[in-house]
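Structure, all two chains, one model.
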Amino acid sequence: MSSLILRTAVALIMPLALLFSLFMAIKGHNEPGGGFIGGLIAAVSLAIYRMSNGPDTFRQLIPLHPRIIVFTGMAIALLTALAPLALGLPLLHTWHGYVGLPGGGTAHASSALIFDAGVFLVVVGASIGMIIRLSEELEA
Amino acid sequence: MDAVWLLTLAVLAPLIAGVVTLFLPRSLIMPRVVIATAGPAIAFLLVAAHAASHGITSEPTDSIPWIPSLHLNLGFLGDGIGTFFALLVAGVGVLIMLYARAYFGPEKDDLYRFYPTLGLFTTAMLGIVVADYLMLTLLFWEMTSISSFLLIGWDRFDKKAVKLAMQAFFTTGLGGLVMFGGLLLFSLHTDLWRWSDIYADGLAGFDMTLSWTNPMLWAFVLIFFGAATKSAQFPFHYWLPGAMAAPTPVSAFLHSATMVKAGVFLTGRLFPVFAALELWPWLIIPLGAVTMLLGAVIALNQHDLKRIFAYTTVSQLGLLMCMYGLGALTMTYHDQTFHLIDWDITQIANHAFYKAPLFIVAGALGHVASRQLPELFGAWHHHKGMVLTILLAGWGLAALPGAISFQAKELFLYAIYHATSVHPIFWILMLMAILTAVCNVAIFVRLTTTLLGLEGGLRTEKAPPPPWPVKETAPDYYAPDHPEDEETDAHGSGVHDDHGHAPHAPGTHHEHHHETGFWGAMLWVPALIIVSLQFLGGLITPLWNAVFRPLETNLNYFGGEGASYTGVPALWQLGIGVPLGMSLLAILGGVALGYSKVMRGAIVDVHDKIYPAIYDLCVNGGGKAFRVVQTGNLRDYTIFILLAFLIAFGGAVYFDGGMFEPVLAQMALTFEFWPGVALAVITCATAVAIPLVQARVVRVLLLGACGFSVVGLYLVYEAPDLALTQLMFEIISVILFLLVLRLLPDPESKGAWVGRIGRISIAAAVGLAFGWLTLVAASGAPFDSGHPILGDFFLRHAYDGTQATGGRGAGGGNVVNVILVDFRGFDTLGELVVLALAAVGVWSLIPPRRRYQR
């Protein structure tokens, strides 16, 4: 699947797609989006990159084994879920409020965002993990 | 000391002593014996101290909290039957500990293992009999099953012994489980969790009639099932003779005085509770009677001493059960109403006092000569002490005058005689009891004639002279010049224990020459001590009454016409009447049968086939079921899962009408918006087309088309979130599908359970069911929120609503995402785990860079 056109296009599109996925994940709490969608977008763009550029280039881009991404995401999600218990609040209780930004403005922030980050990482890691492993299987 | 601590320590003493012996160096024999013996001895003293200081009372001790929420606390009850059993267990335990040392000889390893195990067993047994909490009784009950498993399978390299241990364990373990159910049913129904509460409150308020829907009836049946298996009642008696694979100290302890009596004890405990139940006598009496007669007849047809005594134990257990069964009947005499139960403690004690000695001497004889009765012809000339002891105990077995068992048998016959006035059908029971007594007397006659070498005894045909050199002046067996080369029983190695007709050839197994002096005598002296109680009680009955009278709870002062006594009657107090006549008849018949030539062969009990047959059935049946269900075909597994879902869904719709009406209303709404209908038609069309095409790539593309039309559906219904997610998901799944497609096996694997048409219809049904469920969820009102529809609730509370929703909902403008991370956050967390596990599954199923060879 090594095509010059695809490779060139992906080199341009992928950074944008990754940015877009982060954008989707962060704005998710108040507008359409969320960790799951963001994770899927990132996974799709990474998968296409992996297909057009081959395994070695991909490994240069992400030197981690996908399972590390999955388990980091799991850990973040679990900790966010369990943290309210330590404060005597129910499991997965959400805190939200307004945080001051360095530029002087404020932003609406919520602890659900951290949970969403965990979701994002698990989705990315699991998807690209499966795709990579299955592609290796075929290319072998 | 406080009562509860006295009894707690009493219960734990044998186990603690046993465990302490583990820390001694293996070579230290004597301290080991002393410490191990101290365990039950201390237990005996503590129980006696409790009885002396707090009296024999049905007042429970305080309880030490353990798991109060499960009604499991350390609380004890030192009433008559409990104290009696505790003293019996601990007292016999002391002698068994000493006997075990003599039996095993100075074998370091055997004793090292034996004492802790026996200590555990003694503790378990003591726990059963003094526990006040029902759950505590059950706990110790199961402990006896486990420890007896260890003891029966003592010879762990003997596969047969291990099998027999498993047989005993599974049989009594099954009973224990059933009993657990019964106890729970009883306690949940009555809310009584302590024996003392049950006795104090009584069960007057509860329905005791014979009705299929009466929980008390079923509680009783289930609990009694446990008691019956433990006490080896027909048809579960097979485990007890099988358990003779255990070393003789174990047999003597478990199977005469303790473990098998646990069922009898439980029946005695239940007697005040359930005797009012109409079923009680009609279930227990026939079962006990059949067991009683069957055990006696089979015992007469055995040659192995331990097997003979095992079957007489079965018989006696039947008798004891029968006794408790009769206890529920009442008769009126001179304006007084009597329960037909006669001195149950005496009945139980007398059995222990002859059965334990019989086993002990059987093991001792097996040690020095043989356990096969025909090979012991004339053993009297060599082993005077042992033979004397076994004959004294046999006198008790035959219930001849002089032993307390004579009075016990008389009392039992009285009970039956009185029962005949309640209903003439009990004459059948009388007949069975007489026949049992005849068999017991016949066994004693054969024991006597054989061991003394008289005419009419059993002899082996192959070797008419005894297997040891006959001398005119035979030395006692522990004399120094005793021949060492005779056939000895390798400390109950159990190989021929089970079926009793495969004597070892001399020297084929490991033997250790028996000792002389103190430990040599200890092989049979404990038996003599125990059996002497038989005769003390029988001849000096007031002494017996002084000891056991305070323990008796089921007193019956009614002996018979013209007899007057306030305790167990002495010989001269027995009235002349039908029961005495029956006893005489039994003795005469027994002597005649003993001398006769009939029933002399060693038969194999047909019931020994019950357990292997069931075991086989389970193993083979399980194997067959496995081969049918586990096809290894993913399609079949999927179909199992989907069918199970469909059945559950159908049941839910059938029982809950609320899953029907709102859904129809909701469905009608769908047809008001034509773009939605059009996209739905496309979705359905692509879905239906998938199974119709053969090529896999086309199928995947069709699946993608189906998914993309769903994306369109989301868009026209204004759900951009879902549309985006679905879009991404479709892309990824198409990629994944295309990747795995080439790795899949050939399309039509054979042997699938359900054909193509069936699979299509199941898939369609599951699809419809899931659609239905979605509509149910969408149209249902959420948990007492006052909102008519779930979606409404989420819309209202997604941004603010922490009060109304109990802490859920968190300032998010995007309702879908708030549902995902907050309202339903736990669900999302679960999905994450599933996703991570799926990835782990892929990584482990497809190892990295595996090269295909084809």
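Chain B has a mean pLDDT of 81.
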